Amino acid sequence: MLELVLMVLDLNEIERLALKELSQAKTGAALEKIRIKYFGRRRGILQNVTKQIPKLPKEQKAGIGTKINKLRTKLEQLLNQQAKPVSIKKESSVDLTTPGKEIDLGGTHPLTSVIDEVKEIFHSLGFSWIDGPEVELDAYNFQKLNMPQNHPARDVQQTYYINDELLLRTHTSSMQVRYMEDHKPPIRVLFPGRCYRRDMPDSTHLPSFYQIEGLLIDDASKMSDLIGTLDYFAKSFFGKNLKTRVYGHHFAYTEPSIEMEVYYPGKGWLEILGAGMVNPIVLKNGRIDPNKFRGWAFGMGPDRLALLKYGISDIRSLYNSDLRFLKQF
Ligand code: PHE
To answer: Is residue 124 pLDDT above 80, yes or no?
Structure first.
């Protein structure tokens, strides 16, 4: 009790002294001295008083904290007020009191945040990443992925052709063979980027969207590693209680192939990615010996991940740059 009274007195005394010093301070340097004396992180008077709080009886702590804060705010305000220039030469044509222009710093687009987060999770598993061309050869987008001309699997991917050989890539799998041609296993890499398909825009489709491809090649990888890794990824991204499941699928460039779904309360099972063991034909096309090496690959849509993670109902809102929408993130 005695200590508390002393503290209160101290606070009054501190305030009185500070006000006196402030009234006498004429220069910026003098004000700075006062600022350090009262607010300095290490030896500031208010800091020291705050440190005494734990020594007080419990029921009195809250009250004293508020008092210190009030005093702090008051002194800060006075310091700031006094820091403003008081007199300006009349003949100056520049008004030094004009407030500066506010700088709009902007924020990270939700799609960028999702892509960054996916990269981060896989980075912790030893993956790096690299960009690739959006205007791509038919050879890398289809042929070397075991989808020759007239292969029925091409129909699924409505393609924008530039000419017979060039197209806008329909998926980031186009980077698989490109990367294999220039790199020796072990390989652990992500290919994030834009893809294009002739789709009518609606709440779940756009003619331009993002994908993130993953490719791992070494001499021991297994299907169970792939599934375990994807499950680890999904839980890291959505939360550790997330339920996932995989089921058989078909892609010409993976064998066997799977898709993964995550369970979203209220929405049910939703597909988030396709994957599989890299087809030996594709390894061969990438000049990697399928008798020595094996690997797996996956492709996911960060747009879809963003919709799920942030509860966005229309994929188009990710692309139409409406600040009212973007400012929520
Ligand atoms: N490219 C596939 C798609 O666009 C996804 C995928 C990538 C599947 C890699 C298997 C392996 O849907």
So the answer is: yes
